[in-house]
């Protein structure tokens, strides 16, 4: 019964910000790495960011680094993705995923993650 539920998506104008949340249940968050991935219409799944289960080490896609901040709250069983200076190209469905990874820092490879949420839509448009 491991579950992940994304929230916080919506419509935002270019240059705006959103904070996505990934609420988890059914497992101890500290035992898993959490990754964020996104999929735009007609495109494949793209790794965005991840945070490791050990000491909160983080990893970001090179093209997105500087506009993203991933954080984890073990007490709240949640992971957050702060996105700033959003661009229309950021429009996608954003997914969070959990995996009992051995890599540190975590890796942005989707098949390394075992459990997935249903996604939250982010639309960046004027």
Description:
There is one protein chain. The mean pLDDT is 93. By secondary structure, the protein is mainly beta. The strands form two sheets. Strands 2, 4, 5, 6, 9, 10 and 11 form a seven-stranded mixed sheet that branches. It has a four-stranded antiparallel sheet with strand order 1-3-8-7, with no helix packed on it. 0% of the residues lie in helices and 48% in strands.
Which descriptors would you attach to this protein?
single chain; 126 residues; mainly beta; seven-stranded mixed β-sheet
What layout of secondary structure does this protein have?
Blueprint: E1 3-7, E2 10-12, E3 18-25, E4 33-39, E5 45-51, E6 58-60, E7 68-73, E8 78-83, E9 92-99, E10 115-116, E11 120-124
Parallel strand pairs: 2-11
Antiparallel strand pairs: 1-3, 3-8, 4-5, 4-9, 5-6, 7-8, 9-10, 9-11
